[in-house]
Write a structure and sequence with these properties.
By secondary structure, the protein is α+β, with helices and mostly antiparallel strands. Helices cover about 50% and strands about 15% of the residues. The chain has one domain (about 5-65).
């Protein structure tokens, strides 16, 4: 996780309104979120397989189907 250097934009009473991040930090955060979403999706898929709700396809069958 990168070190973050946010700047907080506030209203005249000092209440936070927005956060400003350098683009590299914003991009790193978005990429991290996407990785975590992918991990969650993979865990859910494995759980469905373990419960017998989904089946797997052997790699050899996939290769043969696509001529690989």
């Amino acid at each position: 996780m990168p070190d973050l250097h946010p700047q907080f934009l506030t209203d005249t009473d000092g209440r936070p309104l927005s956060v400003l991040l350098p683009i590299a930090e914003y991009t790193a955060l978005i990429e991290r979120i996407e990785v975590l979403e992918d991990l969650n999706d993979a865990r859910e898929a494995l759980a469905r397989i373990e419960r017998g709700e989904e089946e797997t396809i052997p790699w050899e069958a996939v290769k043969a189907e696509h001529g690989l």
